[in-house]
Amino acid sequence: MDGVSCEFRPGTLTAIVGPNGAGKTTYFNLISGQLPATSGSVHLFGEDITRMGAPQRTKRGIGRAFQLTNLFPRLSVLENVRLAVQARANAGKSLLATWDSRIALIEKAEHYLERVALADKREVAAAALSHGDQRKLEVAILLALEPEVFMFDEPTAGMSVDEVPVILELISHIKAQGDKTILLVEHKMDVVRSLADRIIVLHQGQLVAQGAPAEVIASPIVQEAYLGVARV
After folding, report:
1. Total domains in the fold of the chain
2. What's the CA gap between 120 and 87, in Å, rounded?
3. Are strands 181-185 and 198-203 parallel, antiparallel or unpaired?
4. 180 in a domain, yes or no?
5. Measuring CA to CA, which residue among 200, 141, 207 is closest to residue 13?
6. 206-211 and 198-203: which strand pairing?
7. Count of beta carbons in the 10 Å neighbourhood of residue 180
8. Looking at the structure, do residues 187 and 170 belong to the same domain, yes or no?
9. Is 151:28 a contact under the CB 8 Å cutoff?
10. DSSP annotation string for 195-210
11. How many Cβ atoms from other residues are within 10 Å of residue 144's Cβ?
12. Strand, helix or coil for residue 231
């Protein structure tokens, strides 16, 4: 990345767009902690988290759904989400957790599975799911972590036309809460137009445009860099 500096506020959804190789995933990795920064800094709610790894940033409220699914393949759909619920509740700290608390964790996990339309596949191993269902499961895990910052890296990639509305409705619901910060990397411009309050455009590791969706999409530099339209 080359001097990219942006601020993201609660209650807004920012779409990050650009051609392949523009630096979108690298930028996400720098924010979420998968990639250490060689210069610059990352701040979350006023706290400098630059030297923190991904697990520490997750505990502080950054949640990320990856472009490639990041699941426990041998565990069931329900167990994948239950572990996320348990991590959020810190239930794993107690070896004397009651059966009632375990039931509560399972019920909460089932709630998130219903939200992503996977309740009927609760006992299926994650590895046995279709790619689209794996993406939905990862979103369920992200919801279970209850982050303050949601990071979606092409959440609808590999999904059928029928599956896409489930994820878009979930993202819209999170946005409607008004207190969460949402970052979205997405190639489908119709999705970007329907969800984004703001667009930032990366090209060759640089920030080349940012602003309201209609304004940014219509700008000559975006037409050339992202849509492949030559400037006259």
Report:
1. 2
2. 24
3. unpaired
4. yes
5. 200
6. antiparallel
7. 19
8. yes
9. yes
10. H-SEEEEEETTEEEEE
11. 26
12. coil
